[in-house]
Design a protein that fits this description.
Elements: E1 2-7, E2 10-15, E3 19-23, E4 32-35, E5 38-42, E6 47-49, E7 57-68, E8 72-78, E9 83-89, E10 92-103
Antiparallel strand pairs: 1-2, 1-5, 3-10, 4-7, 5-6, 7-10, 8-9
Length: 104
């Protein structure tokens, strides 16, 4: 059984006991989250597709860690102008472990 969910404006295909990294979500290590924006659920014999979301469907997840992604450098340079800028950014991430996919 798998599901397609929307978290932080992005879509993820998830299965039970899978680890995923998503944009930062509220919660501490060990907290449980219920992800309500379920777009699709597929089991062995049937497929449920939402318009755009499935009512009464949820994916239960546990917060494993709050981390940061890799550093990304943004460098702007203007030729012959003695002007340049260098900025770095690290996206804050939440690592989730999918516990269960509920469809009622």
């Amino acid at each position: 059984m798998y599901a397609i969910i929307e978290v932080g404006g992005k879509q993820y295909t998830v299965e039970k006991d899978q680890l995923i990294k998503v944009e930062k979500q509220a919660g501490n290590k060990g907290d449980d989250l219920s992800l309500e924006k379920v777009l699709l659920v597929s089991s062995d014999d049937k497929l449920e597709i939402g318009k755009p979301y499935i009512k009464n469907a949820a994916v239960l997840a546990e917060v494993v860690t709050q981390t940061q992604g890799p550093k990304v450098i943004s460098f702007k340079y203007r030729r012959r102008k003695s002007s340049h800028s260098r900025n770095g950014h690290r996206q804050e991430l939440t690592e989730l472990k999918i516990k269960d996919i509920k469809l009622s």
